[in-house]
UniProtKB/TrEMBL annotation:
Name of the protein in question: Aspartokinase
Enzyme class: transferase
Pathway entry: Amino-acid biosynthesis; L-lysine biosynthesis via DAP pathway; (S)-tetrahydrodipicolinate from L-aspartate: step 1/4; Amino-acid biosynthesis; L-threonine biosynthesis; L-threonine from L-aspartate: step 1/5; Amino-acid biosynthesis; L-methionine biosynthesis via de novo pathway; L-homoserine from L-aspartate: step 1/3
Cross-referenced InterPro entries: AceGlu_kinase-like_sf (IPR036393), ACT-like_dom_sf (IPR045865), ACT_Aspartokinase (IPR054352), ACT_dom (IPR002912), AKii-LysC-BS (IPR041740), Asp/Glu/Uridylate_kinase (IPR001048), Asp_kin_monofn (IPR005260), Asp_kinase (IPR001341)
């Protein structure tokens, strides 16, 4: 007998019919004798609708009340799933975040899980192997007793954190693809499913735009050593496949140099032209951005022909672009730049692979291949196991496909 967490994402519970199908996967595991906790997302499209209603109610709304509204999507699904499981003759009970409880920080809209105390769920396991159907995405802040949500895609994190809290043998993330691919299979039909991917690589892929798992869920899986599988809810419940295991690097026998390509449209570029080239200028620009909680990602600095000034280009999340621009414009006098240019029609393409640690020139090959396709690179960053380039958004698919083939990732 094992203890399992099974998470079903939005498309997997999009209709009552789909919930019934997901429930058959749960029944299979229950019938095999396992203790099962289920984590559900809101029905596909529901969270967007709820977010839209908050914006319609007030452009600048209270974030604590936003959480009350958007957490409701998962509540509906948990109740429906419990009803459907009961209909199959299984003992099942729904659990909201506050009932488990899952404690989160008071950063409303992007709360971080601080503790999971699932004694009530364990009591249900002990009593009659009761299936706990938990709402993903939500928790409660211990001090204020208010509902919090974990950021978009947060049900993955609920599932992995619950698996850690329950000391589960496995966390299965059921979604609309049958595993983690070398890149988004919706963009590159030749993408290949991986049997295994290391925690480190999955963490980079998720951070760099592969939204198949929320970044925080991978962090928790890595730190708490939760064996996590990504697999398809559309498999035949009586004959399922295994999907992709996220595991230690050492457990992967055949390592590629590059294992995956990720891309993110969530990036905007700002260039400050002819900034005085003197000590303290970077601090004058990036200090206020940091104080305003704006994350700066890529940075490049180029000395101009006059040798006295420099051009500084950097990227910020698209959502913070206007705020960053307004802030820098308000500091025009202190920073002393000639002009500010911004672009939001850009995309960041990244290649990830632990093999980069021991191989030189991996990125250089990409620069050459992109140049041959006439794709201009606006900015570059590299680190130990990944590199990223910023390019015009119009070239997204071409660039992803080019790098995917370049590193030998295309399916035969
Ligand atoms: P869920 O609603 O189940 O949480 P998501 O839409 O959040 O599902 O995540 C699954 C989607 O992630 C897939 O449909 C796929 O388009 C996308 N995706 C992006 N990158 C990858 C990748 N490398 N491998 C698999 N899926 C990916
Ligand atoms: N329903 C939430 C969202 O759409 C959480 C999730 O699906 O993981 O972001
Ligand atoms: Mg998701």
């Amino acid at each position: 007998m094992a203890r399992l967490v099974m998470k079903f994402g939005g498309t997997s519970v999009a209709t009552v019919e789909r919930i019934k199908n997901a429930a058959r996967h749960v029944k299979r595991e229950f019938d095999a004798g396992h203790e099962v906790a289920v984590v559900v997302s809101a029905m596909s499209g529901k969270t967007n609708e709820l977010v839209g209603w908050c914006k319609e109610a007030a452009a600048l709304h209270d974030q604590a009340e936003y959480d009350v509204v958007v957490a409701s999507g998962e509540q509906v699904t948990s109740g429906l799933m419990a009803i459907v499981l009961q209909e199959l003759g299984l003992p099942a009970r729904s659990w909201q975040g506050w009932q488990i409880p899952i404690y989160g920080s008071d950063a409303h809209g992007s709360s971080r899980i601080e503790a999971v105390e699932p004694a009530g769920i364990v009591a249900g396991f002990d009593r009659n192997r009761e299936i706990a159907v938990c709402s993903g995405f939500q928790g409660v802040h211990a001090l204020t007793n208010r509902i919090v949500t974990l950021g978009r895609g947060g049900s993955d994190t609920s599932a992995v954190a619950l698996a850690a809290g329950l000391k589960a043998d496995r966390c299965d993330i059921y979604t609309d693809v049958d595993g983690v691919y070398t890149t988004d299979p919706r963009v590159v039909p030749k993408a290949r499913r991986m049997d295994k991917v290391s925690f480190e690589e999955m963490l980079e892929m998720a951070s760099l735009g592969s939204k198949v798992l929320q970044v925080r869920s991978v962090e928790i899986a890595m730190v708490q050593r939760v064996p996590t599988y990504v697999r398809s809810s559309f498999d035949d419940p009586d004959n399922p496949k295994t999907g992709t295991l996220i595991c230690d690097e050492d457990d992967i026998v055949e390592q590629q140099i590059v294992t995956g390509i990720a891309f993110s449209r969530d990036e905007a570029q700002i260039t400050l032209r002819r900034v005085a080239d003197q000590p303290g200028v970077a601090a004058a620009i990036f200090g206020p951005l940091a104080d305003a909680n704006i994350n700066v990602d890529m940075i490049i600095q180029v000395v101009s022909d006059d040798q006295a000034t420099t051009d500084i280009t950097f990227t910020v999340p698209t959502a913070d672009f206007e705020r960053a621009r307004t802030l820098l414009e308000s500091r025009h006098d202190q920073i002393a730049y000639q002009s500010l240019q911004g672009a939001t029609d850009v995309v960041k393409i990244s290649a990830i692979g632990v093999g980069m640690r021991s191989h030189a020139g991996v990125a250089a090959r990409a620069f050459r291949a992109l140049a041959e396709k006439g794709i201009n690179i606006r900015a570059i960053t590299t680190s130990e196991i990944k590199f990223s380039v910023l390019i015009d958004a119009a070239y997204t698919e071409l660039a992803v496909r080019t790098l995917h083939s370049l590193y030998g990732l295309d399916a035969a």
